[in-house]
Amino acid sequence: MRDRLIFTGQLLFTLFVAAFLVVPAILSISAGVTVNYFRGISSGVTLQWVFQVWDLYAGTILLSFVIAFATLAVTLLAGVPSAYALHIRGGRLSRIVEEIITLPLAIPGLAIALALLFTYQGFGSFRRSWLFILTGHVIFTMPFMVRSVMAVFATVDIRTLDEGAASLGASPWRRFRDVIVPNAVPGILGGSLMVVTLSLGEFNLTWMLHTPLTKTLPIGLADAYASMRLEVASAYTLIFFVMIIPLLIAMQMFADREQRR
Amino acid sequence: MSATLGHGASVRIEACGKTFADGTRALEPATLDIARGETLVLLGPSGCGKTTMLRIIAGLELPDAGGRVLFDGNDMTAVPIEQRNVGMVFQSYALFPNMSVADNIGYGLKIRGMARKERAARIAELVVLTNITGLENRRVDQLSGGQRQRVALARAVAIRPGILLLDEPLTALDAALRDRLRGELNRLLRALGITTIYVTHDQSEAMELGDRIVVMQKGAIAQIGTPREIYFTPKNRFVAEFIGAANIVESPVENGHLVLPGGRQPIGGDANLPAAVAMIRPETIRVVEAGGAPLCGIIDSVSFIGDRQRMIVSGASGKFLTVDAPNTIKAQAGERIGLLIAPDAVRLLPPEH
Amino acid sequence: MPHKTFVWLCLLPLAVITTAFFLLPMARLVVTGAEGPQGLAGYLAIVTEPRYRATLINTVLLATATTIVTLAVATVAGMFLQRHRFPGRAVLIAMLTFPLAFPGVVVGFLIILFAGRQGLIGDLTNRMFGEKLVFAYSIWGLFLGYLYFSIPRVILTIMAAVQKLDVGLEEAARSLGAGPWAVQRDVVLPALGPAFVASGAIAFATAMGAFGTAFTLATNIDVLPMLIYTEFTLAANFATSAALSVGLGVIAWAILALARSFSGSTVAAAG
């Protein structure tokens, strides 16, 4: 009997917490498609706000994707070979390098952004372009890609596979192409999902680095919250949810599948 | 034994030692000559340096300054493994999970630029040779341990290497499989006739497969010889006890005899020492009637092994003696028996430091 | 090309990027922090100047409260979810973890919808008590916002840790006569200690550095990130904002390094 009570109590508590997390999101979604938020759902369902957001912010949303995929490209090109090098080398130097690239996760985005601003304000055209934001995103997401790939290398014993391919005559570059990368694919995929998701949602760094011409989606959201009517802001948030939630689900499914192996 | 016309390269390592970055001395400078076509086994307990020596020959480790590795007289010391044309089977097999069995076997050929048709023919050849017909399109994780071992071997042999290097290829398998594959491996190696260097800690593998055995201990070579030489004339106690079962007897010597608690045992050959450390193999001790025997003892226990009985006898030497007797001997625990040992079955070992 | 050269080449792009866009800028930041009228002493301003000190204390208190409440909530909910199977469990877990990647701005907006001037809570209390309860723009709103993005992260960590618990230990305790509460107190919670430290550190460091939420809520509450922001953009006090940023970074890093030495695995803040 007491066990049942405890179970019910915990269940109710958990439901309450879940409600706390979900209800505002649902409110936001509904607000984004309601004609008039104050009159509630009775005023009718409409997509006008969504279209309005699209008109106003299509460029911003597009730039967010451009930056996210550019970040992905850079983290892949720099991160995957580095993960290999760090894993193969091992030792103290590798640990120090890992420490250093993981530092941006410990330091608040605001601080990193200020650091970038102080260093590069002299480089006018660079500072004003979206490439500036790209650098911030790359620094922030790189450790996720590197760690994800290194984790896979550890489970697959990539060092012995590398030696095996070498014993058959393959040059280092050939080994990288034929053996290292194909066997790192789960880590690359997991890391990629992570990098894109983080880049799309990044605000702290981007807010300091952006200019009126280089805005990303979260920046647009902040704008909308400050200056647009509630329905438009909600519709914009809805678009963000639609973009990000499938990615989160994909990440969760991917993680589950990897765990079950 | 091995084909007189052996294939492959002859190998010489000269003064090759290895000290690792953290200071561990894995291998004392060693010099070794391996004839073309010979199967040489590096045998020893874990940590004895046998794998390090193999990796130096392979080109995966550089020997300490002054060490040289020569294939057919050519200095290969600075040449990386990719260019040494060796075939290597790793302990964990190192099969590429992203390729099928056929692609794994053909990988070395692909690197060497062999045309697809030729490659397919050679892969087919090897599949038959290593007995894995039907598995060509499987992925690596669908194979059993024994199958993986064969694929690893096929892959190493496909490229027609000058030297075949095997790092404990049977260790990862369970005992029954290991025994079966040992015979297959032996036949295959004889058929190929390539210079082979085989690392193992299992002395029965070493005895069955090796033309010569290098017994290693703590980074140094303890003895090099044919299986018979190692078995019958071990150079020291370590080698004696590592290969086969051995009775080690320490006793004073008088008049060419070992003076033992249970009697006296004549030693063949020169025995002008006050005391000796001697090795006696269990199967060389004959069990006879106690009356009149020069050496006697009491049977502690009898274990039936299948093809013989193993008796533990006390009271003859200072410690227990292990005696392997044929099944025709009817003796029981508690009985007093006599032990007859031919003088040259008593092998003297150098005293320990 | 020799293997060693190849390995170094592999590290080259990362080395260039990290040096140019992280190490150099951080060095510049540290230098800038000392360029103010007080020079190097400017770094101590975070504790000596009363206004900054108050902000620091505020931020630390808020982060501490967030951490404690989050850990408590996540433990109860996480243990419950991990230990029981029932229809709808997967949905419940999804609901609790979906805010994982939301930026602080979105969380701020959701809090406004929840407890702002036209918020749900305001509506309900108006109908029930005739008076609108609005707390989104106060420290309670900020606190709620911090909880909102901390709970999903910590729940996942706790659930993973609970899964790894050895049930045999609890059974042994029970066989010795311990009641359910004693089992929790003496066996389960101590075993979860490292998980608490690790996830607590993440929650704390994230709350210390959180910017988006406070920005959206446009609170009058002084938290360190907002102070840095206003010093930089409104007052153009580059040296002060740099010094404060370095201070904030050092505190966050120190907390995480400390936690790592306890739990032995890499932990990182985000958001």
**What is the subunit organization of this protein?**
heterotrimer
- The CATH topology of the largest domain in chain B is given as Rossmann fold
The named CATH superfamily of the largest domain in chain C? MetI-like
- The number of distinct β-strands of chain C equals 0
Number of helices of chain C: 12
Query: End-to-end span of chain B in angstroms?
Result: 37 Å
Topology (SSEs and partners):
The complex is a heterotrimer of chains A (261), B (353) and C (271).
Chain A: H1 2-33, H2 48-89, H3 91-106, H4 109-120, H5 124-128, H6 130-156, H7 158-167, H8 172-201, H9 204-209, H10 217-227, H11 230-260
Helix pairs in contact in A: 1-11, 2-3, 2-6, 2-8, 2-11, 3-6, 6-8, 7-8, 8-11, 10-11
Chain B: E1 11-19, E2 25-34, E3 39-43, H1 50-58, E4 68-71, E5 74-75, E6 86-89, H2 101-111, H3 116-129, H4 145-158, E7 163-167, H5 175-192, E8 195-200, H6 203-209, E9 212-217, E10 220-225, H7 227-232, H8 237-242, E11 247-254, E12 257-260, E13 263-266, E14 275-280, E15 285-288, E16 295-304, E17 309-314, E18 321-325, E19 336-341, E20 347-349
Parallel strand pairs in B: 3-8, 3-9, 6-7, 7-8
Antiparallel strand pairs in B: 1-2, 1-4, 4-5, 9-10, 11-12, 11-14, 12-13, 14-20, 15-19, 16-17, 16-19, 17-18
Chain C: H1 3-33, H2 45-48, H3 50-83, H4 89-97, H5 104-115, H6 120-129, H7 139-163, H8 167-175, H9 180-209, H10 212-217, H11 224-233, H12 238-263
